[in-house]
Design goal:
Layout lengths: L10 E7 L8 E3 L4 E8 L10 E6 L7 E4 L12 E8 L2
Antiparallel strand pairs: 1-3, 1-6, 2-5, 3-4, 5-6
Length: 89
Amino acid sequence: DGLSYGAVDTYVLGYIGGTGITEGDTYSGSSINPAGIYNSNTVGADALPSGTALDHGSSTLAGTWRAMGRVNNNSGSTTSRVTLFLRIS
């Protein structure tokens, strides 16, 4: 397919902490960390017992990205938020 990771017109599951995410809005790649979701049976700082947990790296992305989903609960808090982003430039 010829597109490389992080190229324009590619998607990433991205994490933004401390601010709400609104579908259709654009975000700087420097505020987005690539993320993932996993099932965990371990209790820990980022895990729920026998539930779903969020994980993200510390690297950020280049360019400008459009949010493809909305995650705005408790938008003034430090709640972790993940949605799909599309790189537009």
